[in-house]
Specification:
The protein is of the alpha/beta class and 282 residues long. It contains 9 helices and 12 strands.
């Protein structure tokens, strides 16, 4: 059962891939069931000529900007990831978003928006489940951590350590593929002092290796407080993935942890950029 600290006016958007209308409506019904008011942004059900996008770039960006500029909207919740958020980063009203400090919820491809927010000094990003999970079976961890993220409660974790150490810092959660794709763009954030929380889906172990190497060579891990690996769903056999992560750990100096239930499967551990996280080895 989901619990929210208060009643929110939520704008549902599709900033990346398209989402089945039944899933959108089912998720909307769940959010309304718990006392929230939900607004479907105008282009949420559009389809672009490029079949992997929910609507054209201008329309998807317009929905986000309209929600950001509407003082009656409390937060923006993406209905699905997929691909497309990178295409609209240069169309977002970052000045107004920073002024309002309005949360944007989602994960996977929504990482592009979240990391661009961090680049602009905005920490109101929420790595949170989207409508497929919201409309599905709600487990206790998913519900409790979503409530904690909304409440801004500090987090204390004990996780499996690949490189032991203690961490206490604010998080920067994201999808590994999207994070690597942002390298070299003006939207790649300063990772200094952050806990990088990385998850992935459907990528072969060698591709995970390549993306971690890309981020390492780009300096993403040089001054971060630590690294946490979440779920690597459908990425091959677990021993293969763990071998890649263990090998990677030998190339960084910060604490590294793994097996946080955060990614493309349930339970989903929600994380807000405003939550101070303390981690020690399990």
């Amino acid at each position: 059962m989901f619990k929210f600290p208060r009643r929110y006016r939520i704008a549902l958007t599709a900033p990346a891939g398209s989402c089945d209308e039944n899933t959108i409506l089912a998720g909307k019904a769940v959010l309304e069931k718990y006392g929230n008011e939900v607004i479907l942004m105008p282009h949420i059900s559009d389809r672009d000529s490029l079949g992997y996008l929910s609507a054209g770039d201008d329309k998807r960006a317009a929905d986000i900007n309209a929600a950001v500029n509407d003082e009656n909207i409390d937060l923006i919740w993406a209905v699905r990831g997929g691909y497309g958020c990178m295409r609209i980063l240069d169309k977002i009203d970052w000045e107004m978003l920073k002024k309002r400090d309005i949360p944007i919820l989602g994960f996977s491809d929504i990482t592009a928006l979240h990391w661009a927010m961090a680049k602009h000094g905005i920490n109101s990003y929420f790595a949170a489940p989207m409508m497929k999970f919201i409309a599905g079976v709600c487990d206790s961890l998913t519900a409790e951590t979503l409530h904690a993220a909304f409440s801004g409660e500090d987090i204390t974790l004990k996780l499996d350590a690949l490189r032991p150490g203690k961490i206490c810092a604010y998080p920067l959660p994201g999808n590994l593929t999207v994070a690597a794709a942002l390298c070299g763009t003006e939207f790649f954030p300063d990772t200094t002092g952050k806990i990088l929380i990385l998850e992935e889906v459907g990528e072969a172990p060698y591709r995970i290796d390549r993306m971690l190497t890309q981020l390492r060579l780009a300096g993403a891990f040089e001054k971060c407080a630590g690294i946490v690996f979440g779920s690597f769903t459908g990425c091959g056999e677990t021993p293969e993935v763990m071998a890649v992560l263990q090998n990677f750990t030998g190339n960084v100096t910060c604490p590294v942890f793994c097996n946080l239930p955060h990614g493309h499967e349930l339970p989903f551990y929600s994380i807000s950029g405003r939550q101070l996280i303390s981690i020690t080895p399990r």
